[in-house]
Design a protein that fits this description.
alpha/beta; Rossmann fold; 16 helices
């Protein structure tokens, strides 16, 4: 704390003080704890003669734009502060190091006529000179936070270079420790768990539900020293970058772990696209046994604006086979054997067509648009880093800095969304089967796998037919998805 005399620029009387303290994780012991901050701020309030109305703290909470934790006490400040208050902090970085957040908070203080006090001085956010001074202090704090983050990333890079593990032990891996010190030395694949995760990844890509995978592999997972393997765990494991050998820091992939990954990294993108698709619905109950039940639709119902769900109906006698029927109104009823054979043959011809494969590969490649977006993201991030670096050197106003950076970050977000959408555009079920080997692959599939392929490939509608009996029309319309047709 600076050793200059106390002075106040306040032109209005202060009725009460509200103290706020925050500390992020500090293993060194050199930082000020929340209790120490509150004790020091309380002493300042006693010296100034301000009654303390509330003392709030957020312990082990970061305040930079890279921090992910929620600050409950900070969120309460707008409800507590009122005109005539002074907010007392150890230093302005205790409030936040995020310039955008601090700009909004300064506006709140100005609107409420609440002063800010730190370092033995009171600041009025309605005063331009005071506001500029505080902004400059926050910018300096943000610069220090950036340096800290760089030091952490350098430590990550050093651990990666030295083949040292970082963070908690992820599923599919085990940590080797030094026999003398007990310190972790390296991370290697847990063969038993990795085998199970690879099987789970293959089953998931084939369209099997998380519930089914969990039920089939949970006992083996527990036997392989694993913990829980319920459907939520399976989804979490198969969408976690660490499962595929990536190193993650604050939710960002920052490199590749040394050694063999538990699961092939090439499967990471397809699995995330498949399992994190907002339109994906979880499978409940027993696995389906009929190819088109609940997939095909009744054409009459669709014309009426109804869902038109088609159900399977068992044969009434040996003379009649199983049938697909309209669930709600019995508008249509058709031989299951004939409908299945018709739909399978039509789709297999479509899958074998070389033009279909060319269409899918064109979609999967993403084209020049994806390459352009990736280049744009890289350039924007470089521009942001360069501008922040120059702003710190020139002591630029934090408000100006935030106004420049925010639109660029929004452009990065929009470009990333386009890239993610392109990556998720082609269903993995289609990529697996389209090609000259379609019939052999189809024959080897389970019913759930075939159903997922049909969902991705086409909309099947059963319509009424005029003629009944042995030589009646099949009355089935199959509409391939846009991905399988020329535009």
């Amino acid at each position: 704390m600076a050793a200059h005399s106390r002075r106040s620029r306040s032109r209005k009387s202060i009725e009460r003080a509200v103290i706020y303290a925050r500390v992020s994780k500090d293993d060194t012991g050199r930082g000020r704890s929340c209790k120490e901050q509150i004790d020091a701020c309380t002493a300042d309030c006693e010296y100034e003669g301000w009654p303390v109305a509330a003392a709030l703290m957020d312990n082990d909470r970061g305040a930079s734009r890279h921090s992910k934790g929620e600050r409950e006490s900070f969120a309460r400040l707008p409800d507590i502060l009122r005109p005539g208050d002074v907010l007392v902090v150890w230093e302005p970085s205790r409030i936040t190091r995020d310039m955008k957040v601090f700009g909004e908070f300064c506006d709140l203080l100005a609107e409420r006529e609440v002063r800010l006090y730190y370092d033995t001085r009171t600041y009025d956010m309605e005063d331009d000179d005071d506001r500029h001074h505080v902004w400059q202090d926050i910018l300096d704090g943000a610069k220090q936070a950036g340096k800290t983050r760089k030091r952490v990333l350098r430590a990550l890079e050093a651990n990666l270079k030295d083949k040292k593990p970082h963070g908690r032990q992820p599923p599919g891996y085990m940590i080797e420790r030094d026999a003398r010190t007990g310190q972790p030395t390296k991370r290697k694949v847990h063969l038993g768990q990795a085998r199970i995760l690879r099987i789970a990844a293959e089953r998931a890509l084939q369209g099997e539900s998380m519930r089914s995978i969990s039920r089939a592999l949970a006992d083996e997972w527990i036997a392989a020293e694993g913990r829980s393997f319920d459907p939520r765990d399976v989804k979490r494991f198969l969408t976690s970058p660490t499962t595929f050998g990536y190193r993650v820091h604050y939710g960002e992939i920052v490199g590749q772990m040394p050694g063999e990954p538990a699961v092939d990294p090439k499967l990471y993108g397809p699995l995330r696209s498949l399992l994190l698709d907002p339109g994906r619905q979880s499978q409940h109950g027993s696995e389906p046994r009929w190819l088109l039940s609940s997939i095909a639709r009744c054409g009459v119902c669709l014309e009426m604006g109804e869902k038109g769900v088609i159900d399977h109906k068992r044969a009434r006698s040996l003379r009649h086979g199983d049938a697909y029927t309209c669930r709600k109104y019995n508008h249509v009823a058709r031989s299951m054997e004939k409908v299945d054979a018709y739909v399978e043959e039509l789709l297999l011809q479509l899958f074998e067509d070389p033009e279909t494969l060319a269409l899918l590969m064109a979609q999967d490649d993403g084209g020049a648009e994806v390459d352009a977006d990736l280049a744009l993201i890289e350039q924007l991030r470089a521009d942001i880093k360069a501008f922040i670096r120059d702003a710190a050197k020139t002591r630029m106003s934090a408000l100006v800095l935030a106004e420049y950076v925010e639109p660029l970050e929004q452009q990065v977000l929009e470009a990333q969304r386009r890239v993610d959408a392109a990556a998720a555009l082609v269903d993995p079920a289609l990529l697996r089967i389209v090609g000259p080997d379609a019939r052999a692959l189809w024959k080897a599939m389970t019913i759930p796998e075939r159903r997922d392929t049909i969902r991705a490939a086409a909309q099947v509608t059963i319509v009424r037919v005029g003629k009944q009996g042995r030589y009646a029309d099949i009355g089935v319309e199959v509409y391939p998805t846009a991905l399988l047709t020329t535009r």
